[in-house]
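Lab notebook, bench 4. Still working through the backlog of constructs that have no structural model yet. Next entry is a single chain of 360 residues. Request: give me the structure tokens for it.
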Amino acid sequence: MENNKDLGQWLEDFKLDHPLVIAGPCSAETEDQVLKIAHELKNSDVSIFRAGIWKPRTRPGGFEGVGAIGLKWLQKAKAETGLLMAIEVANATHVKLALEHDIDVLWIGARTTVNPFAVQEIADALQNTDKIVLVKNPVNPDLALWIGAVERLYNAGIKKLGVIHRGFSTYEKTKYRNIPEWQIAIELQSRFPDLPLIIDPSHITGKRDMIQEVAQQALDLNYDGMIIETHNDPDNAWSDAAQQVTPTVLKQIFRDLRIRQITTEENDYNTEMIKLRANIDIADAKLLEILGSRMKVAEQIGALKKANNVAVLQNKRWNEILGKMILDGEQKGLSEEFVLRLFKAIHEESISHQQKIINS
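Model written out:
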């Protein structure tokens, strides 16, 4: 897919003085619920109303969406509020029903993006459509899969394309539901700067109290918009209750977000500096996350040494690590002096953690 400016033209048609906002419940539950939330979002920064109609669940037995009947509720919400309507589609049948009910925006979910056969089926069903089609990143951190899904749609004659960054699944427990892996989205953005990039802080965080923080990080990185799950009674939502906010909270988030509007040429330096500093902040946060995980392993080692009456300091092992890190550091452009200082500090902290375990 070539870097085509037409890809982002649809976003300009909204004529917004703020980032694009897509909001609505994780799942359409009842007609009354859909209409109530849509009306509460009508007079706000929200341009597109989202609601899950079909819900892919990891295991059978969970709520899998109300199905096609929910599309009629969205039609009614559109007629009453004027908001555009957006749903997730996972196959050609979903696409057919969405087009029959005049849904404006279709997004491909992370579980579908990972499957090129499914994406191609959707692309064929959407051939030459003028609908807006958004592609979430695949569940695994694979930039080629993400780009490939967009290319399949582009090759099917779909020009109103955009991508949604919803984070990546990991077995390791972190503060996120899905780790952002910001560098992957940044790489996509640098390759295709005219492809609208939208943040999904609801799925990245899995926690409503972190949504604003992640949305702000995205805006600092020049994202074009956000998709936020919004429910009139989040605690009793039929799916993903913990990551949904009320319309009132959503509007407060809008007020608290800092929108950086730098448009003049003399401010190109400031724009680039803001982006680079945001990248530094992301890298620093990742470093702390990794170091925290390393110290937890050190504590486990301390417990094992205590159980087997083994001394904390193992000089042979330490010298092997240091030698390897110096060589690896050189390949990454890091001086021997810096690597020595860094890993000595890490080693001292690790010893301290182990000693606390052994002496406890």
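Notes after review: The longest strand covers residues 84-89. The mean pLDDT is 91. Flag for follow-up if needed.
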